[in-house]
Write a structure and sequence with these properties.
With about 190 residues, the protein is mainly beta. It has a single domain, classed as Lipoxygenase-1. About 5% of the residues lie in helices and about 40% in strands. It is built from two helices and twelve strands, in the order ββββββββαββββα. It has helices at about 115-120, 180-190; strands spanning about 5, 10, 20-30, 40-50, 60, 75, 90-95, 105-115, 130-135, 140-145, 155-165, 170-180. It has a six-stranded mixed beta sheet with strand order 1-10-9-3-7-6, with no helix packed on it. The chain has a six-stranded antiparallel beta sheet with strand order 2-12-11-8-4-5. It is globular. The N and C termini lie far apart (about 40 Å).
Length: about 190
């Protein structure tokens, strides 16, 4: 088991492990607190941000309708509409090749939103056991895990974590910041037109 982080903590990913090149970011959750007649469909997205802290090109937004970045640096392994995780419990998975992330990208923001949350009267208060974990793709070893806790009673979108460059190294930041307004609010926050 890797290092367990709390909200706001940061860790070096590559400083202590120069061999780390490809990672798998797995996100998981349970939806047992909800009985409203609709499935809770959570969607993971990655905002690939430049120096401004914003997404500079539309193709730098990776989500269920744009699963792979042109560079091959980030690949979304597909939308899980049922909430049933894979064998490791991850509901959705993003693969990242740190060596080919374009130079203009300084930060990868990993987010989760609830599809049609307002229309279905859903929010993250109905989600439990949410986490993100980072695994070395080549060895299968879990590097870290961040459990989000249950502090999100009205939010429909979460900025879960960020992987960012600092002095030539890659670091991880456990963000855990909630938003109301779903994917549209996140897009505006990261500089995309909705």
């Amino acid at each position: 088991m890797g290092i367990v982080l709390k909200k706001g903590q940061k860790i070096d990913l590559t400083k202590g492990d120069l061999a780390l090149k490809k990672i798998v970011v797995g996100l998981g959750w349970d939806t047992s607190n909800y009985d409203g007649g609709h499935e809770l469909d959570l969607d993971v997205s990655v905002f690939m941000c430049g120096a401004s802290g914003k997404v500079e090109h539309d193709e730098d937004f990776i989500f269920y309708n744009n699963l792979r970045h042109d560079s091959g640096a980030v690949e979304h392994m597909g939308d899980n509409r049922t909430g049933d995780g894979d064998g490791d419990g991850d509901d959705e998975v993003i693969k990242v090749d740190l060596l080919v992330v374009p130079k203009h990208i300084e930060r990868l923001a990993f987010t989760v939103t609830i599809d049609e949350a307002v229309a279905r009267k859903q929010n993250f208060g109905q989600v439990s056991n949410a986490y993100v974990r980072v695994v070395d793709e080549e060895t299968g070893k879990e590097i870290l895990k961040y459990d989000l806790g249950e502090d999100y009673s009205i939010e429909t979108a979460l900025n879960v974590c960020e992987i960012y460059r600092h002095n030539g190294e890659w670091k991880f930041n456990a963000v855990g910041s909630g938003f109301q307004g779903g994917l549209a609010a996140l897009c505006r926050n990261f500089g995309l037109s909705v």
